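Appendix C reproduces, verbatim, an entry submitted by the partner laboratory led by Prof. M.T., so that reviewers can inspect both the input and the predicted structure.
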Amino acid sequence: MDATTRALAAALRRRLDEENSTTTVADLWPALELASSGRLASWRDHAQRWRDHVGPFFGARLAACVRPGDVDEYRALRLVAGAALATVNREIALLRRLLRFSARRGTITESHLHGQGMTAELIWRERNVRRTVVEDNPAATITLGRLLAAADRRLRAFVLLLHRSGARRTEASLLRHEQIDRANLVAWIPDEDTKGGDGGRYVPLFADVIAALEEVPRVDGNPYVFATRRRWRARPADEKYQPRAEHPDAWTKRFGRLIRKLGVDGPDGPPWLHDLRRSFITLSRRRGEDTTAITKISGHKTLIAFQRYNVFSLIDVLATRSRLEAARAAELAQHRRGPRRADAPAAEAEPREGTA
């Protein structure tokens, strides 16, 4: 059987599978939820995207028949409704993950949303890279000191932790006392608490961060640094109430209220809580830290993702100009002195005071 015949047979088989399939997109969701809910720290956001938008639109459709045209229709409706492009891209990415996961398990024959060039076609390029950096310099537009002075003890410790370590808000909110190494001023973030998981990593802490964390009130029986006094009933229902940490969304809301209270504004508008992570990466790069080291600490897996957080602004241009001017002045001074001849005698040392 030649290649053309095999291709026609495969196309016919796919067509028959589509015509005979009764599996809807909603039927695929429970398997992905079961496989990912305990592994990904960001699964709560995925579940909300499915519940609010992706599920209602695609849930009743046959999974084997979802094609790029359906995604284009969904994107158009969401953008008209006022959703941001970045938000829509993440919802489409969730749909693609669901179909690919099901295709690999054999629940459906294949995903029509995957293939050469399909990612660029379905996930549109975002032009919303933020430039806001919270500076340590008191003369800057947005200063860390001003934020810390107006925050309460819990929020002050949380903001300082994000700014000094580059951790994500979910990683910081799930931090437990046992993960803090006060002798070496580092904290361990385990694999299950990171975005996507990557074996876990250490993040740096400093004396002021440790001092701020010590001021956070502890809740008896709760291992989390940022513990909440509220408790939730674990599954199964016959188990006891379990302690939990403050949810990341609560920190985002508190930070937003703080920014509105101060009336702080930046190049992208009011700062976001996630801008603290960008600030750690940008300021570390300005201080001359190695890119590989910063990437390992921040948990970025690719340099493309890292560069989205590495803001190159007017401050960096001026610093580069200063270094170039200094190097050029040194070169000119060297040319004025001229090259030293190899056979030139060495200059005699001047006699010391008190010697003949």
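Strands lie at 180-181, 186-189, 201-204, 232-233, 241-242. Additional entries are available on request from the coordinating office.
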